[in-house]
Amino acid sequence: MTDTGLDPRVQELLDREEIRALITAYCNAADRHDHAKMRTLYHEDAIDDHGAFFCGPAMEFIDKLPEIQAPMEILHHNVTTINLAIDGDYAEGEVYLLAMHRARTPDGPIDVLVGGRYFDKYERRNGAWKFLHRAIVTDWANVHAPSIIDRDHPFLAGSKFGQPGPGDPSYDFFRLLKRGD
Predict the structure, then answer these.
(1) b/e string for 37-51 if b means 16 or more Cβ within 10 A?
(2) Is 118 part of any domain?
(3) At 8, is the secondary structure helix, strand, or coil?
(4) Does residue 1 fall inside a structural domain?
(5) Torsions phi, psi for 123 (to 5 deg)
(6) How far, in Å, CA of 90 to CA of 121, rounded?
């Protein structure tokens, strides 16, 4: 552990905030299909376990994301409860999430709302916290086939709609929350 000279309680607060920022950056990268950003969140030797989608080296998982995400019309990850334990340059987290997916299938679009948790191991290297191992656990899912999402409803007329990639309105709106970094 790097000795910062700070009160240990202050250092723990800083570490917690850096890890929370890592967790939320993951959600943004996943939802925008921003694979370059996703790559910066994991250590080179990290592991990712996304169940049936992929289990193995995180960089290989990120290489497969274009294929995995191809049918995803909407991805919307939301983290809620974040339980962290920190020991020097190593930390663990149990992160609750709600993840909405709208995916194309041969029978038409479906909606899948997943309630689950990430089991995370983090490590600080060269002053930066990154994922060392991330596993997803599904606690429940709500599936609608066909999809019940209606973005054409008159109530939404004139709304901006989020989408994967640089066509998302956030790319033009923000100056400080840069995309693809």
Answers:
(1) bbeebbbeebbbbbe
(2) yes
(3) helix
(4) no
(5) -140, 140
(6) 7
**Shortest CA distance to 108 belongs to which of 77, 140, 66, 148?**
148
Q: Report how many domains make up the chain.
A: 1
Q: Which residues of 57-95 are buried (b: 16+ CB within 10 A; e: fewer)?
A: ebeebbeebeeebeebbbbebebeebebebeeeebbbeb
Reported as a single tens digit per residue, the pLDDT across 134-181 is 999 999 999 999 999 888 888 888 888 888 888 888 878 877 776 655
Please write the tens of the pLDDT for every residue from 53-88: 899 999 999 999 999 999 999 999 999 999 999 999
Are the CB atoms for 84 and 98 separated by under 8 Å?
A: no
The runs of H, that is alpha helices, within 70-181 are: 170-173
Q: Which domain holds residue 128?
A: 8-171
CA distances from 71 to 33, 59, 67 (A): 12, 21, 8
Cα-based angle 136, 94, 17 (whole degrees, multiple of 5): 120
Q: What is the length of the chain?
A: 181
Cα–Cα distances (Å) from 151 to 2, 60, 72, 73, 105, in that order, read 50, 34, 15, 12, 18
In a domain, 43, yes or no: yes
